[in-house]
Amino acid sequence: MIVGTFRQHGVVYTDHVIDVPLDHTNPAGETIQLFARELVDAAKADSALPRLLYLQGGPGGKAVRPANRGGFVGRALDDYRVVLLDQRGTGRSTPVNRQTLPQCGDTAAQAGYLTHFRADSIVADAELLRRYLGGDAQWDTLGQSYGGFVTLTYLSYAPEGIRRAFVTGGLSSPTASAADVYRLTFDRTAERNGAYFARYPDDRPLAARIAGHLAEHDVRLPTGERLSPRRFQGLGVGLGQRSSFDALHFLLDEAFVGGELSDTFLAGVQAEVSLATRPLYAVFQELIYNQGAASNWAAEREYRRRENFAVDNPEFLFTGETYHPFHFAEDPALVPLAPAAELLAAKADWPALYDVDRLRRNEVPVYAAVYHDDMYVPRELSLSTVDLVGAVRPWITNAYQHDGLRETPAVLDTLLRMAAEDR
33, 83, 317, 416: which sits with the fewest CB atoms below 10 Å from its CB? Predict the structure, then answer.
């Protein structure tokens, strides 16, 4: 149902909420709410435009909240009604966090609840939303990062809903495990560290000094918890985005006041490392790869094999997009989720997220931006997927980092022009 509508900057925004099954294999069981915001150019509000479903990156990220028609959303509004879906558990779609998950019962019940929040369930939600909005009409999809993972699941189990699929920095491998992925992403993260410290060479000894200071002192963040050296090391999660280099440098630039870490620095670190606004990002970071096997904290195992990432290494390296058991012991937003996360890390009987045979036979046109130096979705895996999945047309570029879609509408424009050429 429509729960609200407003207009600003020449765009009409319409908010929709529908009830969907928690477990799509049991449609008569418990339901949760799904929220989506639909945008249309006010001058075209009465036109029969096709819909574009935007699948947000993550996992565990709510949809973008554009305040105007700038960026890639503005470009999309030239041709589409744009549907911004809060994937289940995020934003206004029955959120899952430290406040809500304990209401599910004991640890086993909480873990069982969370098993229904992966890409297979997101796709089933999307199909119910598609029919609610447009009946049998197909829509196009735009998957950024994790949204590309969801796209491949969509093409595996409900390709009839998609006319064309666009993917930016998210052409995942349907066969790779979390361990396979981290073997590549740790290498790429080291490369991004090299590029960062080449730009800001004084930041390496400064970062090592901060890590040493944190090891020797009980330093508290504004929310009261201790800042550990490894949690500080995780500031490198953004190094795969072009815009992050300068932001990280300017944060480190104000680290010390005399011999103490400054309030300004600690407040900035808190804003970067807290997962209060997206706890599922940590919970599902490895679970999005699991099919018939447990991940068993694959990132932590890989980290311990990498001596160059030791937090006390004078040649300091920041870590990337990895979450570890210590995060669930140190971040107040994650501590209540820790017991369920432990059960899920050990869970081996995960269902398949992809139908590889069906993907080989795929006929839905897929236009994919593959970022050559992507720190999060390794190009090696993306290119193997290009060879595996039918009807994929890649655009391989080193002009952008992983945040290319957010950085400029030119990324979406390029993919749309590729699709137009194929008509």
Answer: 33
